[in-house]
Please model this.
Amino acid sequence: MLPTSLTQPLRRLWTLESFAYSLRVFIALAGVMALCWYLDDMRKLIPLFLGIIASALAETDDTWQGRLQALLVTLVCFAVAAVSVELTFAHPAIFAVGLGVSSFGMTMLGAVGQRYATIATATLILAIYTMISLEQHGGVALGELWREPLLLVSGAAWYGAISVVWCALFSRHPLKLSLAHVFRELGVYLRLKSALFEPLRGMDIEQQRLALAQQNGRVVAALNQSKEMIFRRLEGQRGGRKLNRYLRLYFIAQDIHERASSSHYPYGALAEAFFHHDILFRAQRLLDQQGRACKSLSRALLLDRPFDHGPSAQALEDFNASLNNLHAQGRDEWRDLLGSLSALGDNLATLEDKLAGADNPDTRADHEDSSLFDRSPRGLRDVFERLQAHLSLASPVFRHALRLSVTLVVGYGLLHWIHPTQGYWILLTSVFVCRPNFGATRRFLRQRIQGTVLGLIAGWALITLFPTEPVQALIAVAAGVAFFATRAHHYTLATAAITLMVLCCFNQVGDGFGLIWPRLFDTLLGAAIAGLAVLVILPDWQGRGLHRQAATTLEASAAYLRAILDQYARGKRDDLAYRLARRNAHNADAALSTTLGNVLLEPGHFRKDADIGLRFLVHSHTLLSYLSALGAHRGTAGAAGDDNTAVTAAADDVAETLARVARQLAAGETVEPCQDTLTRHAGLLEASAAEETCDERRLLQSQLALISRQLVALSEAAGRLSTQASRE
Model:
């Protein structure tokens, strides 16, 4: 048994998402390095290393069977790409045509799915690695056409074998990390939400709402990742106790998300009415404690420890005591507000129950619908249909594919024109830097250049300080591991690490110092070509399509509202149709937040809509919060009230108005004013809520009134977006 002082750090390392990935890379690189030293043939080192890197870049989360199938496909693609480069390397015209066509085709595969996009990108990178390796050896020897492809594919197969074995041994570990990430992001969301209950007059609610909308995007991304990981493991394996436990935890996270994102009343009005009472402080503390409980649950999942949510349970008791004190005062002017606070209390009490159930998720009812929606292609016909749908200049995937292929062909022509030393690094830089939009390209361009400079300086210093080859070999392995440990979140450091690895590897077979200036020059040239391409070749300015993404958000919200109203009429059922409508609404909200983030990185002229878009995001996320509250309080069938046709008609009219604004915004048409109609509906619903004795019906009417009033501000923001779009 290892001492506790040693096991604790190891357990914490094991909980890091990049640790297992980096450890696999370390085993692969160290094994190849040891083999080359044993055989005394360091010339094989570079292609073997490059094959390992390409295979690691092609890796996607899967079961060991799925990973094995993906590996076989990847190795075939790698072999075809490497041999094609070998056969056409000496024929520049044919090579240029093949480079352009293949890069376009492989980029278009991104329209089929993320797994296809990952393998295709890695194949393109391996093709360029083949060019680099061939250039290092001075071209293709007729009797050794097999040499470079065999070494590259062997390196890829070696890492792939390690990955398959790892998946077989630790198939549940990535899923545990993913679910822990979900609850960690939910914890951040809840604590941000608690700030809205700060009992301050004149607080900047819009800024708080904006931060909440941006965090909601992170929660949605984490939920989507977990769903895909669970779905891949459920295929052919339904019924496993451990896997079903993770599935139930995922559904608990979804329920918590719906309740956490709910809003029951404008926060400014609550602060004004209860400024001298402690109810808002109690609500703030309860949400904060529940956020901390989510973070604690995340740690418990990672470390396999018991989960204790005691502090949040005490905070709920304190909130209920404060709420009961307000009810006991019986003040008429508080009646509507107290109804909303009571709904808030019920919502947070249910959220607390969900947190308590997370400690033993197996108690979740087995009869509930636990199906998940499969977004992956179903056969070749589906693949072709997805590709055909993107064969248009309006498709961002098509534009990026065309832009990248032109970038690589221009880079290839330029390196033949000026004949730079190690010129194929130009193409590699362009592949890593050229992104689908300007904002991402600018960010990666800057980080790539900074990382390259940092890596070259570090490489020069380390090669000088440690001239012996064994030490440099160890540095190369460590740098390769550092690249994969940092590439997801710290691209500058990752670029520095891979640059250092390249210098140390090349110094094993030649002069690493002679690579410093060519590497810097080629990086600058490749980055410049990619940056220019994004500016002039079918530029995909996110600001110009902002109104369409906003319309998609409204369409998804309208579908979510209709799904909620159907549940109020038929009774609560957490079936796939309802969960899909809810998830689509949150996905659209997250996509709008991401689009606005990209707009803010664009040149000044193209981000003139950013302020309008940010205001729209605040309003649309507020609308989603009101919808979430409706969804969170679904109950028995008939809650909509069959005898109240006026309320039902108003609800249908609100949903139709939301859909109509979405259609007008998508088409860039003038958004028709609907303030009078919506205000009338809001008044009708508020009057009905004031006379209603059934809590569930009163909540439905109150929330629909809030939605109606929110739609007034939302339609005005949509009108400004549409007007701005029509001027361009």
